[in-house]
Design goal:
The chain is α/β, with parallel strands linked by helices and 423 residues long. The protein has 14 helices and eleven strands. The strands form three sheets. Strands 3-2-1-4-5-11-8 form a seven-stranded mixed β-sheet, with helices on both faces. Strands 6-7 form a two-stranded antiparallel sheet. Helix 2 (69-76) links the parallel strand 1 and strand 2 (80-85). Helix 1 (43-53) packs across helix 2 and helix 3 packs across helix 7. The relative contact order is 0.15. The model is unreliable at 1-7, 386-395 and 407-411 (pLDDT under 50).
Length: 423
Amino acid sequence: MLTQLHNQPFEKIPVSPEWCFKNVRSVEQWTHGYHRYPAKFLPNLVKKLIEDYTQPTDMVADFFAGCGTTLVEAKVHGRQSIGVDINPVAELITNAKINPIDPKKLETKFQNLIKKFDDYSPKDYSEINLHDRIDYWFSPRHKYKIAFLYEKILSHHDKTIRDFFLVSLSHILKNCSKWLQSSTKPQIDPNKKPTDPFIAFKMHTKQMIKRNKTYYDELSKSNFLNTACEIRLEDARKTTLQSGSVGAIITSPPYVTSYEYADIHQLTAYWYEYITDLISFRKYFIGTFHSLNQETTVDSVLGQQIVNKLLKRNKRKAKEVANYFKDMQEVAAEMHRVLRTGGHACLVIGNTTFVGVKVKSAEVFAEILQSLGFDLVRVIKRSIPNKLIPTIRDKKTGKFSKLKNKDSKLVYPEEYILIASKK
């Protein structure tokens, strides 16, 4: 069982103000603002973890790289880094964010691309054969323009340039679709007037070009342009990272509801032909009910207590949470394998509540880490002022809700940073 720090439960640990970063807009710095991403890692948080718990010679790893925040910050700090993520959309976004492009070269490529807009003719794309879900989300007028943009971007032979423009196009897909703009959940807005793809693409790409320049200039000034930085499309439960090769791990494991990443990124996944159906795509994500494992026994003592409570109220949720704890046990073992002796694992994770049962993910993960041979050095509690994640659940159903629902309650108002070292 977990040895509690400070001789008190995690929920009794006071919030550390220096880790909250209230009113900080660091997502606008460097390349962090290239693409919207749910539950985005706060760059200032990663920056502080790098400065406090890594050495200049350390290889920094992120097992849930997401949109590449850890890797971007590691490169700015001159640390070599490597990330893994099972989501091809995340891989694409990260590749664009970690690879700065010579500003003059990028501007030339952009001007050449927008000049091609004059060649656009809707009839050239009226017979295009695309996935049915694209027709569900996009009107023909917008679909044809996106198809044109996609075709022209793919014609670039330089992968770095191609990825840069693909990320810009990916970012605007939601704006140009019928998807309810204010929602991370996939739902049609019958009253929405989607943005013209050409206008949205030009506007967002210009913003990305500005951010690329500041990133490029900073790395040039510090001589970190060629600092090794890589993203791999891999499962965090079984990576190709060499044993003992990593000096520090800085990551934010997914919440129990991680399958929503598959839903949220479906527009890009369908357009870029990463998937053919959403159900199959979901099965690869950590801890989802859609995976084949339906057992409800877990190795963690505290984790099993939580699952047993859920079994009395909602068997589906109990299986989902059990899957999550099993998956995270595998991830923790993989982290222990790749981390060098004395290296730190810095994990940002939050608790939640399902059908009235507290799912203490942070405590369970701390227990798992210690059982695998980690020393739990510190537990930091922080409030979440700006994290982009659905934060309201219906107390009865466990589904995400709105505050106007009388049965709703706030979840994820705080999160924990676990600092562990490998013995």
